[in-house]
């Protein structure tokens, strides 16, 4: 809307107006992606001393203001002078001083805003599905539920979720835990993609990270790109595999997750999403035994796990 108003006030040709409006749409979208990436990296590089709380909003608005000012400054380089009004014959009707074309542009902007507000409201209401009721996760093959006490005490540093699901499974000597942080009707402070959400915080009093990186997981009959994090405490070691689940899609990218969330909202499917973690301790079989247990669980229980998430989102 601001770009449309600026184009109307500073240009006379339709081509320049359309080009500036297009630039005022594309540039802020790209700048917002750059802002989000910069804030995440700033928090990472400063160990969350900066851009970890409300200050990231200040940085974001300052950056956004700079981008908008730069857009207007560049646009002013091609500003067109006001067209001189032709001499009016004596006795002819005086012009009101308002161009018909300008009124048309202003009317389009007003109508666009008027239509977009109820559309946004409708899309927001699509996600209002009430509390989360987890569907049952059925055992598959030799994997059966067991006691939660068989796993070392640990919880990821995630917040704002609508509900959580935890269960422990065993098919051999190594138990495997399932953690699901489920998000619905997301907003500030209760969103899946948040710079403060971590599998393990850097200053955890019990656990320390020993390794991290990507991992290829055979989830049922599909190979998915997940991430792995290995941690150790004074008395135990554990491996965690994790990824985001958004409307049936898996990803480990924060940016791609935001795209999937936006697409789900635009399709009227709400914003149901989750962080899913599989974790297993290191036992007598060592690191290889832990990885083997996680691989077997993902292969055997991947299908039921995805079906459980689908039924939770669409009961």
From TrEMBL:
GO cellular component, one term: plasma membrane
Statement: the UniProt record of this protein carries the keyword Cell membrane: yes
Positions of the Methanolan biosynthesis EpsI domain: 109-306
UniProt keyword Cell membrane present: yes
Residues passing through the membrane, by range: 18-38, 58-76, 97-117
Keywords noted in UniProt: Cell membrane, Hydrolase, Membrane, Protease, Transmembrane, Transmembrane helix
Domain of life: Bacteria
Cited NCBIfam families: EpsI_fam, exo_archaeo
Organism: Thauera aminoaromatica
Locations listed in the record: Cell membrane
A single GO molecular function term of this UniProt record: peptidase activity
Annotated protein name in UniProt: EpsI family protein
GO biological process: one example: proteolysis
Topology in the lipid bilayer: Multi-pass membrane protein
